[in-house]
Write a structure and sequence with these properties.
With 215 residues, the protein is α/β, with parallel strands linked by helices. The protein is built from eight helices and six strands, in the order H-H-E-H-E-H-H-E-E-H-E-H-E-H.
Length: 215
Amino acid sequence: MDWKTLIENERHKEYFKKLKAIIDEKYETTTVYPPKEKIFNAFSKTKYEELKVVILGQDPYHGAGQAQGLCFSTPANIQNPPSMQNILKEIAADTGKQPQAIDGDLTPWATQGVLLLNTTLTVEAGKPKSHFGLGWEIFTDTVIKHISDNFEGIIFLLWGSPAIAKSNLIDKNKHFILTAPHPSPLSAYRGFFGCKHFSKTNEILKKEGKKEIVW
């Protein structure tokens, strides 16, 4: 099995055919992010056999040029959004090191085995959560369940209540689940700051005999 096969299996299902028709129309009639060719970017950047960590976001950034198909990540030439700024602050405070992804592009995390998955993979420009309920959640729930069933010792970082709600899809006897409030300015001070998820993740990886992530 690999990501490509998993995605192909879903494409043949009725819900996905309906979802695709809706999303295709929205790309033609409105401005949708990320660019169409980057919808499944998380799966192309993180190799199936190298998966170690899953970070679960909500939906892509809805501003021009921000979304690139990796949750929380933006291209290096885009100003870091507030959530990304808070993630970088927590990494620096937690690890005592300057984050590798200081420019906000999290591709280096993805290539180290961190799947940067949003629960909804598209969004209309300027309208957060506009593509909730169209069918993406069925797809991403399937991905989370597949990872839970077919891998061992994956570390899930669930930030914010929508992500934390997905913990019921994960086998807690086989995997590690770390939860915290969302890193957005609205909730970061309620416990995202100080959650130490980055050092905790690396401690687990070390115990599991896996290479630590350079955050």
